[in-house]
Amino acid sequence: MRVNSAGRGIIVVFAALLLVTMVLSGSSCIFSPQSARQVASGISAQRIQITARSWEFIPKEVRVRVNIPVELQITSVDVDHGIEFTDLDVPLERVPAGRTVSVRFIPDKPGIYHFRCAVVCGTGHDQMLGLLIVE
Ligand SMILES: [Cu+2]
């Protein structure tokens, strides 16, 4: 099929209008950026290993990025310990002696959060404290 020059002009104008409409409307075509949520879901978890032993967490300070899933892998190298966040909505986990337990959550607000041992593990139990810094 042959298209005369008037027809080609109409096609060019139509294509230009379509392109402008897609860009202005933020259509999910290749011209628009992905939303932050889409990007975050494509990133794998921030995996952090913590050793629990009488009577400390190593490291005792953990830094993570906001809105990216976190997986804490806590290993107890001696007796039963646990991890509990005092100011963050993360379920308490018991970490049996010699075992590794994973705690997963998404930190959705920057800040400094406290965690502590959740199982009475001896005379130094109250000093088993740590900080999670979300930035
Ligand atoms: Cu303890």
Explain what you see.
- The protein is of the alpha+beta class and about 140 residues long.
- The protein folds into two domains: about 1-30; about 40-135, Immunoglobulin-like.
- Helix content is about 20%, strand content about 35%.
- The chain has helices spanning about 5-25, 35-40; strands at about 45-55, 55-60, 60-65, 70-75, 80-85, 95, 100-105, 110-115, 130-135.
- Copper (II) ion binds near residues 119, 120 and 121.
Task: Offer a few descriptive terms.
2 helices; alpha+beta; four-stranded mixed sheet; elongated; 135 residues; binds copper (II) ion; Immunoglobulin-like; 2 domains
Q: Supply the number of helical segments.
A: 2
Q: Which CATH architecture of the largest domain is right?
A: Sandwich
Poorly predicted runs of 5 or more residues? 17-40
Strand content: 35-45%
Bound molecules: copper (II) ion
CATH homologous superfamily grouping of the largest domain: Cupredoxins -  blue copper proteins
| CATH fold description of the largest domain | Immunoglobulin-like
Major sheet summary line:
5 strands, mixed
How far is the first residue's CA from the last residue's CA? 60 Å
Oligomer: single chain
